UniProtKB/TrEMBL annotation:
UniProt keyword terms in alphabetical order: Membrane, Transmembrane, Transmembrane helix
Transmembrane parts of this sequence: 25-44, 80-99, 111-133, 153-179, 191-209, 215-233
Protein name stated in the entry: DUF4386 family protein
């Protein structure tokens, strides 16, 4: 059976509510919550920093990190970050596939839905490198210690500095796509759209003002985790159960 016309055209029936009539729970958006939670841990929670740099930051003073600091890095923390990061990548890919199955195919004319998909896949691909460098550094600090000197380890350290943060820019783009779906296409709850607009615009504005390119990695995992829960239990046409359509 074909979809009804208002579902095939995102701009149609603007007078209708963006929410389905019945209360319901759908599980597939929770892949976004898993990706966001794992991403927050793998990016921020297990960020490898020399103890001296952390102490200097707490005291409000600058510290110059050199290759001599590499010996003091914690390989176990790096391994945890890498492992949790892999979980975030897996969850991002599954969520992107579920989004295409449940949303992009249903709202075939939606530009916003496609932007969400592309942003998720872009982040997942780039995070393979970001978390991979974290895992490589942990490996050369632990099981394969001694294969690289401190200068070689410092190269890996510099790659991990923003390596797990930068890729979340793709999720930032996905957030703008979801906001478009809320305000222009009326297929997402406007409450979620408002939250998403504030999160995405705020993160982008901070990046432009501060010049720090890794800020999406600080904010967007949390946005993704909250959005997954919201879509799972809230009211949005994109997450409507198939038996309720």
């Amino acid at each position: 059976m074909s979809s009804t016309p208002d579902l095939a055209r995102p701009h149609a029936s603007r007078s209708n509510s963006a929410a389905p009539r019945g209360r319901r729970f759908v599980a597939w958006p929770l892949w976004a919550t898993l990706a966001g939670a794992a991403g927050a841990i793998g990016t921020v929670g297990t960020d490898l920093r020399p103890a001296a740099e952390t102490a200097a930051w707490q005291e409000g003073r600058d510290y110059i990190v050199t290759s001599a600091d590499m010996a003091g890095l914690d390989p176990a923390l790096g391994r945890i970050g890498y492992s949790v990061g892999l979980l975030a990548i897996l969850a991002l890919i599954v969520f992107a596939a579920a989004w295409r199955r449940h949303v992009e195919q249903r709202f075939a004319g939606s530009i916003g839905a496609r932007v969400v998909s592309v942003g998720l896949v872009a982040s997942a691909g780039a995070l393979v490198l970001g978390y991979g460098w974290r895992g490589a550094l942990a490996n050369y600090l632990g099981p394969e210690a001694g294969l690289y000197d401190s200068e070689g380890l410092f190269v890996y350290y510099m790659l991990t500095d923003f390596g797990a943060y930068l890729p979340w820019t793709g999720v930032l783009v996905s957030a703008f796509g979801l906001a478009w779906m809320a305000w222009a296409e009326r297929s997402v709850s406007r409450i979620l759209g408002g939250f998403t607009t504030i999160a995405a615009a705020g993160a982008l504005l901070l990046v432009l003002i501060s010049g720090v390119p890794g800020l999406p990695g600080v904010f967007m995992p949390a946005w993704l985790a909250v959005t997954g829960i919201w879509l799972a239990v809230g009211r949005s046409r994109v997450a409507e159960r198939e038996d309720a359509r």
